[in-house]
Specification:
Layout (H helix, E strand, L loop, with lengths): L1 H6 L6 E2 L5 E4 L5 H13 L11 E5 H16 L19 H16 L3 E4 L14 E4 L6 H4 L6 E7 L4 H9 L3 E2 L1 E5 L3 H10 L4 E4 L14 E2 L2 E2 L4 H5 L13
Parallel strand pairs: 2-3, 2-8, 3-6, 5-6, 8-9
Antiparallel strand pairs: 1-11, 4-5, 7-10
Helix pairs in contact: 2-3
């Protein structure tokens, strides 16, 4: 940005990552929520700009959600990413893997509970085990910083406290994506409208389309990729005024 401004004010469109919240209400399809939450976090080993960086689960289903996620995570097949039967491959760089180890250590040090994973697997390659952290609170490092790795960060919220969970979800410098799981359409529309993110998925996640604009709010950047809005990044508007 500095280079563009100092040279010739070159117009840029920036997508700068995020810490995307995923809110799961008790009235959702829990089986689907578990499946989509795992996809939202573990897809591409977590190396995904719109990964569900923080998951908020309503208190009455929190323990069951954790139990099911752990059960399903244990079933994931880890190995060669070129093998179509594999669910989870290696990280892209040793320094990144070490940063994931430090990330988990920081979370545990601040009081988060490690319920699964958190280590490099004892096998050739940079394989970091899919990881689940719970009891995460707003002030913690893992609640605010993006891991860019296969680390599920879970918080719970009081049943019915829609305002509180939205406040926590928006308490971030980022605003790239977000998600809501509920069978109450009115609640879904209210929450999605109040979440400060460029994209909000309802009862799904990671579902993008070339026809829909993609881009973030706040420190997640500006400008849009995809959709008709993306064409505006390559155009200039000119006005011609004629008096005759």
């Amino acid at each position: 940005m500095t280079s563009c401004a100092q040279s010739n004010l070159k117009k840029v469109s920036l997508e700068l990552g995020g810490k995307s919240p995923l809110i799961i209400f008790a009235d959702c399809d829990l089986n689907k929520a578990v499946r989509m939450a795992m996809s939202g976090v573990f897809f591409n080993k977590g190396e995904n700009c719109i990964a569900a960086g923080r998951i908020f689960v309503e208190e009455s289903i929190h323990d069951e959600f954790i139990e099911r996620v752990v059960q399903e995570t244990k079933k994931m097949k880890i190995g060669d990413p070129l093998d179509r039967s594999v669910d989870h491959g290696p990280q892209n760089h040793l320094a990144h893997l070490k940063s994931l180890q430090a990330y988990v250590e920081a979370g545990v040090k601040e009081g988060a509970r490690l319920v699964y994973g958190g280590r490099q697997l004892d096998r050739p390659g940079l394989f970091f085990e899919p990881t689940i952290l719970t009891d995460v609170h707003d002030h913690m490092f893992v609640a605010t910083e993006e891991s860019f790795g296969p680390i599920m960060v879970i918080s719970h919220f009081t049943d019915g406290d829609v305002d509180g969970v939205i406040r926590s979800a928006n308490d971030s410098e980022f605003g790239l994506a977000s998600g809501v799981f509920t069978n109450d359409l009115s609640k879904a529309l209210e929450v999605s409208s109040r979440l400060e993110a460029g994209t909000c998925f309802v009862n799904t996640y990671n579902k993008t389309d070339v026809a829909t604009p993609f881009g973030g709010f706040k420190q997640s950047g500006f400008g849009k990729d995809l959709g008709q809005e993306a064409l505006n990044e390559y155009l200039k508007t000119k006005v011609v005024t004629i008096e005759y």
